[in-house]
Amino acid sequence: MKISAITIFCGSRSGHQADFETQATVLGKLLAQKEVTLIYGGGNKGMMGAVANACLNNGGKVIGIIPQLLLEWEAQHEGLTELIVTESMHERKKILYEKGDAAIVLPGGMGTLDELFEMLTWNNLKIHDKKVFILNTNGYYDPLVHLLDNMQQEGFMYDAWRDRVKICSTAEEIINAFS
After folding, report:
1. Would you give the distance in Å from CA 84 to the centre of its chain?
2. What are the beta bridge partners of residue 65?
3. 20 and 47 in contact (C-beta within 8 Å)?
């Protein structure tokens, strides 16, 4: 799988476990080393800031996409390779999906889950066929994996969700999966 740009979905907060931000930092550094462009939500806080700063600090290219509404809330990153400001959240998500060859989902909140599920839904509807990687740091997404397995076992999936989604425990595991 040749990936030259990857979309990252993650929280604008860091969460309570230091490992969340540590793995985001490792991922950003590895993306820079592999010369993979990082596409993300454009913020400078939390997981978003950690992954973007690590990529930039290691010579990587980072494109942020942020809606006008969130410019003040997310404190847009001022040092990006490129910052695209959109009119709406929907336009932001569309561009995030279009620019990446695949997606990586790090720990985050409701917005992160919204982005993950929209990406999976678009996969299911054949709008795109992009691979999705979930960085399951310290088992953060274990309850979600259990829910998705249950949805499949109960007959609510059209196909095997694990064919499209790869669950990884570390940033290195994700990088190794597509390099």
Report:
1. 17
2. 84
3. yes
Q: Nearest Cα to 168, choosing from 134, 145, 141, 139? A: 134
Task: For tokens 């990088």, name the residue.
Answer: 175
Cβ atoms within 10 A of the Cβ of 128, count?
12
Supply the pTM of this predicted model: 0.95
pLDDT, one tens digit for every residue, the chain (179 residues): 689 999 999 999 999 999 999 999 999 999 999 999 999 999 999 999 999 999 999 999 999 999 998 887 767 889 999 999 999 999 999 999 999 999 999 999 999 999 999 999 988 888 888 999 999 999 999 999 999 999 999 999 988 999 989 999 999 999 999 87
Per the CB < 8 A criterion, the answer to whether 23 and 9 are in contact is: no
What residue ranges define each of the domains in the chain, with the CATH number in brackets? Answer: 5-178 (3.40.50.450)
Residues 6+ apart with CB under 8 A from 91: 67
Q: Residue 144: which residues within 8 A CB-CB, separation 6 or more?
A: 113, 134
